[in-house]
Amino acid sequence: MPSTFARSIALAALMVALVVARPAVAGQPAQIHKASVDVHGAPDSKSAVVATLKQGAAVDVGGQQGLWYRVSLPSGPSGFVRVNEVRMAYGKSASSSDVGGLFAGRAGKGRVSETAGVRGLDESDLRAASFDGAQLAKMESYRETPQQAADAMRRANLRERSIPYKPEEQAVAANKKGGATQQQKRSGLSAARGLLSSLGLGNAASDTALGAADATTRKSGEELTEEELQLGPEIAGRILGAAPLWQDDAAQRRVNRVGRWLASHTARPELPWTFGVIDSPEINAFAAPGGYVLVTRGIYELVDANDDQELAGVLAHELSHVVQRDHYEVIHKQEMQSYGKDVALSHVSVGGGELGNVAKDYLAKNGAAVMLTSLDRGAEYRSDEAAEVYLARSGYDPLALYAVLQKMTALGSKAPAMAQLFRTHPPLDERLDRLDHNKIAMGD
């Protein structure tokens, strides 16, 4: 009879054999996306070309190194192509864990792998959630100064670039100081109405015209910013009431370091930019007015853990929503619809450092549910475009966002973790098509 030691050795050998024989994560099907693509022997454009494939050729993506995919060739060997030279097929059953492990070299452990039972934040969660001041204070405690982020990123040898971006110029113009306040503009309209009346020129038509002008009078850039700065933490605190910060100190510091560095390369670097990772398995992100950006644990675990570029791609998209006041405008429009233009505008506070009554009422009724309101497609496409600009300005590769969208595609349109994102964003293939034609970040 074999000794106990011999049996132990045999059992250990069998276990090793089973591990070795265990199938690896299956490759993700894809097609060559460009007219002709050189496949390189290494993830380097200077490496030898091992094959050239034509558009439409089927390949399997077996892994990722930086912004290169390792693909299996029909002839047998494998090689490398850039992430925008192939297009992923929409996944059918891949989990976040599988995709994260395949593309980022991670095992994909944690609740992110439990895609069958994923229930992300929905409108009812965000509407009902109470404001969590303690969680908000904790989020703000991770905030980095522009100098802190710059010191860290320059040590990483990121090369900044100067890239003009026309849509951003409009945001800069809207934020200029010194313009007339809403109250001053209305005083001017009131004076005009009085003058016309005293001259006997007032009539129904002129009253209607002046009334319309009064009802649509916009606040100054300074007033808009003031209201954003008050709305932002109120909304962020309610999101945190629905899903607290993920208890990973390194993740919180990383997202603030990368986010603050990117924000310094936008048209609104002066905002109190604050970032956080919330403990939710879904794949999503939220950009509240005033510079409060939250990403879910699900999307944080999907991006490359060893390279900041993909995380930067996610954050850069959200930064554009803040820069362009996208969700602030949604709140403004919904205020008008809920209360009526005249009533709403009569309640809005100007100056004094207090949030407008209508905005307070809106938050009391809707909580942070506005963050799951679909923006128009133009805003989403613009944010993708702006993200590539911010990435390039900050020294990252603009293809980083492309890589993230490819990973989302590999997860598939039916992945539970993607449900809210698919509901509020354009289809991924349309977003990728738009990025294919974006030459701004490439310096063209």
TrEMBL record:
GO terms for biological process: proteolysis involved in protein catabolic process. Keywords: Hydrolase, Metal-binding, Metalloprotease, Protease, Signal, Zinc. Residues 1-26 form the signal peptide. InterPro entries: Mito/Outer_Membr_Metalloprot, Peptidase_M48, SH3-like_bac-type. One of its GO terms (molecular function) is metal ion binding. It holds the Pfam family Peptidase_M48. Residues 36-82 form the SH3b domain. One of its GO terms (cellular component) is membrane. Its cofactor is Zn(2+). Residues 251-437 form the Peptidase M48 domain. This is M48 family metalloprotease.
